[in-house]
Fold this sequence. Notes:
Elements: H1 2-29, H2 33-46, H3 51-60, H4 65-70, H5 100-105, H6 111-152, H7 165-180, H8 193-202, E1 207-212, H9 219-226, H10 230-238, E2 242-247, H11 251-259, E3 267-273, H12 282-288, E4 291-298, H13 303-386, H14 398-402, E5 404-410, E6 416-422, H15 427-447, H16 459-462, E7 480-483, E8 490-491, E9 508-515, H17 521-524
Parallel strand pairs: 1-2, 5-9
Antiparallel strand pairs: 1-3, 3-4, 5-6, 7-8, 7-9
Helix pairs in contact: 1-6, 3-6, 13-15
Amino acid sequence: MGMRCNYHFLAIYTFIALFFPFIDRFWMESLSTQQRRILSEYQSITHSEDVPNSIRILDENDWDLETSVQNRYIPSGYKRQRYKRDATEDYDEDNDSPSSTSALLGHSGSSTASSSTAQRKPKWRILTAFMWPFNFVGKITWHIFHYSVRLIYRPTITPPRRRDPRSEADRFLQNFESTYGTIHPDFFSDGGYMQALKTAKDELKYMMAILCSEEHDDNDTFCRQVLADTELLEFLRQHEVVVWAGNVRYAEAYQVSNILQATTYPFVGIIALQPPTSNSTSSSMNCQRKMVLMDRIEGLTSASSIVRRMETVMQLVDASLQSLREEQEQRETERRLRQQQDEAYLESLRADQEKQKQKEAAEKAQVKRELRARLREQYIKYLCQTIPEEPTTAPSSSNSIKSVTKINFRMANGERVLRKFKADDTLKDIYNFVEAYPYLKEMEEGRTVNYPSEASTSSSARKNISPIGRPESYVHRFNFSIHTSFPRKVYEADDNRKLADEEGLWPSATLIVDTIDNEEEDKDDF
């Protein structure tokens, strides 16, 4: 079914394509050269492709082009109006001779042309009546084919991509400078027309909107001379006028021309804040103020004229604009003052918070040190209870001499202490003794005044210590090291290394105790 429809449409289209050119050729060959020229102009004005209908309308209006264009929608049989023109329209100003347009349209006034037209009139009416059925069938066939093709094939139409206002502003600036040079007002380039309008409103400035059109003869003179005038440029710079310009060939500038109702180019619009009315208050003026077109300059003008028109507008608006500027400056001053006060308050608050943090950190560190000192003291007192008794050697027993070593300690404070240890004692037992020695010494001195040079640490002295448990979750770190004098060899507090296995500690040795600082002790003790 679909294939049949396609064949029918193809046959109809072939018939139209083959038959209609012969009909048009038949109509055209029966016309004179002058009539063909009038017909061509009529079709270009009305965009009509129907040759027989166009000839019929021209024939009914005596081949008057202007009257035919005006009466083309009036049906046949109705009275048509003849449009009279000014008497001076068909004559040139120089020699008062008929113009070329009048001669072309057949308004020479010769009786020959009129009589010739009158003789052809019945002939054309008979021919039009004869060809009317063919014309009617052709129109119906063409419309059927046209709508059928639209139903079968609908091409996708993608509208042209519209440029954003910033791109259009950049494009206009590049084209302007490439054509007229770089001496021109400082055109607004941070956006489009609406952005320039917003900038002028927010900053309480005047705005000048310039619309150009290359199709007008005065455009080149205006862009090359008026916009480059030194007086105008200095005036715009001095008053900080926001200047926006565009070419009506671009989409945004065309919309602006409709908004400002520009009819003649070049166009200059002077825009400013609307002056307040007599019954408007300052607060309502600030809330409802808007930018309005105060003056418009259409067509070619001079730079001094634009300056004078700007000065006239400024005389009307400057008072209210200055009042708004003072209010804005006062608000800005108050805002900066509040901002400075807020910054000073926040700075003081941050300093107080920092001091409070440092104070809290110092208190926490102090509490931690005190706790560590108490736990350390508790642990050392616990060591005093766990240190084994100092072994004794009998003079007659050789085995007991081999199982005991004498170690001479030189403490960090310069004091010398002699202590015996068993062979199976470990290096950590040595460290525990040195750590607990000050407490053992205090207990010994509390029991007797004359304390011997040998730290016997007798059981009677340790009995004075009350039972103390080992502190929980406490990791003890020794704040000293033990080493030999020469060659220097440091012994670590190892619970698995026995004294009998250490060369240099058996059967006697001299060890030096040096104090060390544990910076990470506060963090790792518990």
